[in-house]
Amino acid sequence: MLAVSYFYSMTKKERFAFVLHYFEEHAPNAETELIYDNPYQLLVAVILSAQCTDKRVNMTTPAIFEKYPDVYALSKATFDELFPYIRSISYPNNKTKHLIGMANMVVENFNGEIPATVAELITLPGVGRKTANVITSVVHQQPNMAVDTHVFRVSARIGLTTNAKTPLQTEQQLLQYIPKEKVHIAHHWLILHGRYICVARTPKCGECGLRKVCKYYQQVISKQQ
């Protein structure tokens, strides 16, 4: 009963504070699971990761980076040359075109340097707001919150967001309460929590340290028990 009363008496600000403190204690060094050595490699990996697992991407990228070590080399690739390296990734046709188009635009419009702002990144083929937020957050630690399916689901379940219907609404609500200096790591906290604990079909609530403040647990799971 104490946990239930505590949950219903919490403010949104207090819920965020609890969640952030929990992750700071239990995952202080959270980071992307994509393997990369520089901004070019990270951008390629993130473009490939759309609707695909990081594990599969990490199995695929070493051969790509060996064949195309920088954006200049990738810009010279043809579709037929690059496609075999991406065949095992979801949506290989589109992603092959996007990677070649991205490389060409970076060479032509940005002197071969991966852009460092969201506004510039989203002009590249295959780069939407989520990808741009990932790059600027991971590489430059800018306070940009990338919202993928994990972040969208976890934020709603815990109660960090309220009636957020789109990734942009989720992003905006999260940024209201997460301190700027913590946004870049909070992105990883939410993704990894969704990937390993708060999974889509059967969340592992018994293993979760956020039960005390979680809307889904208190309003759904606890009433089933």
UniProtKB/TrEMBL annotation:
SMART domains cross-referenced by the UniProt entry:
ENDO3c, FES
- Entry-linked Pfam families: HHH, HhH-GPD
Q: What does this protein do?
A: DNA repair enzyme that has both DNA N-glycosylase activity and AP-lyase activity. The DNA N-glycosylase activity releases various damaged pyrimidines from DNA by cleaving the N-glycosidic bond, leaving an AP (apurinic/apyrimidinic) site. The AP-lyase activity cleaves the phosphodiester bond 3' to the AP site by a beta-elimination, leaving a 3'-terminal unsaturated sugar and a product with a terminal 5'-phosphate.
Give the note describing cofactor binding and stoichiometry: Binds 1 [4Fe-4S] cluster.
The family line of this record is: Belongs to the Nth/MutY family.
Know the name of this protein?
Endonuclease III
BP term (GO), one: base-excision repair, AP site formation
- This enzyme's EC code(s): 4.2.99.18
Organism of origin? Chitinophaga rupis
Which reaction equations make up its catalytic activity?
2'-deoxyribonucleotide-(2'-deoxyribose 5'-phosphate)-2'-deoxyribonucleotide-DNA = a 3'-end 2'-deoxyribonucleotide-(2,3-dehydro-2,3-deoxyribose 5'-phosphate)-DNA + a 5'-end 5'-phospho-2'-deoxyribonucleoside-DNA + H(+)
HhH-GPD domain spans which residues? 48-196
Q: Which residues does the annotation say bind [4Fe-4S] cluster?
A: C198, C205, C208, C214
Q: Identify a single GO molecular function assigned to this protein.
A: 4 iron, 4 sulfur cluster binding
Q: Where are the transmembrane segments?
A: none
Known SUPFAM superfamilies for this protein? DNA-glycosylase
Q: What are the record keywords, sorted? A: 4Fe-4S, DNA damage, DNA repair, DNA-binding, Endonuclease, Glycosidase, Hydrolase, Iron, Iron-sulfur, Lyase, Metal-binding, Nuclease
Which gene name does the record give? nth
